[in-house]
Write the structure tokens for this entry.
Amino acid sequence: MRGLYVHIPFCDAICHYCDFVKHVSKGHAHNMKYLEALKNEIQSYYAKYPHVDTIYIGGGTPSALNHEELTFLLEALSMYHPIEYTIEVNPESYDHEKGIIMKAYGINRASLGVQTFNQTHLERLNRKHTNQMVFDAIASLKSLGITNLNVDLIYALEHQTVEELHHDIDTLISLDIPHVSAYSLIIEEKTFFSHQLKRNKFVKTDEDTEATMYDIVIDRFKDAGYDHYEISNFAKHGKTSLHNTLYWTLQDYIGVGLGAHGFIDKKRTYNHKAMSKYIIDPLKEVIEQDEETLRNDHLLFKLRMTQGIDLNMVKSKYKDDIFNLYPSLLRFIDDGLLMIEDNHLKLTRRGLQLGNLVFMVFI
């Protein structure tokens, strides 16, 4: 399979935790200049790769595009007919007419940036929507037949209580959403929160509370009928994200747009993050991946999946035992972070919480 990632960098406001490539929109003319350059980049890849199985339009805030801009973007992608066609939506920038446009161009999956249903925490995150906007957007999308929905949830927020987390989960489950991506709040460099933290104006959740909250997330969504198929992702009724699974199984994906990166024909591609450079020539660099790097990436990503690494696959594909290739993995079995089950090497519950320690083996 092959995927296509499309980056829309524009936002009406910048979230305090976000370190993605983004810009506050400077107006229609500026947006269209970018979209024209994006269209040219899409066409340059289409000439060589005329088929993709998944498209994911992310950001930034794709739903911040107005009706004309959104139509222009989707028209630029209209030669593709993917199995799964996802767009990210922020509730405050969505309206029913945008949903109609999305449906007309074949979008069949939407990912909503909700993060929390607590208005105090939303304001601290610099999110601009209300719960009613979330409910209205979900109802609108479902009425149009776009029922394959994901909701992003962030936990371990500043001063968040366990009771508040339970309320977020209760609300989300009541909305009958088939896919949930749940992440703990990470303080990334050069974000508003990182500056606040350096000035002692931000209080991080302690590790024990964060671990307790992750346990709650796992247990609550499992009890609600979700399959915990990747460290941070839960799906019902076989609604796993096909596009993200491409990343985690080291399959090809094209990356277009400002700051986008791709993986195609065993090469990593990286686009410029500066708008002025992107408009002239999107591609910043292409890095060929050697076989050891490809193996490391493959096994690291497989370990992120809860089904783990098939040990027979490793012997067949790499002609060696995984513990000969990576002897230090044995220590993580002894430490209780890894286990072998049904001939698969998997993270334990504790390993899911401390996965980054294990992943260093492959870096």
The first helix runs from residue 28 to 46. The mean pLDDT is 96.
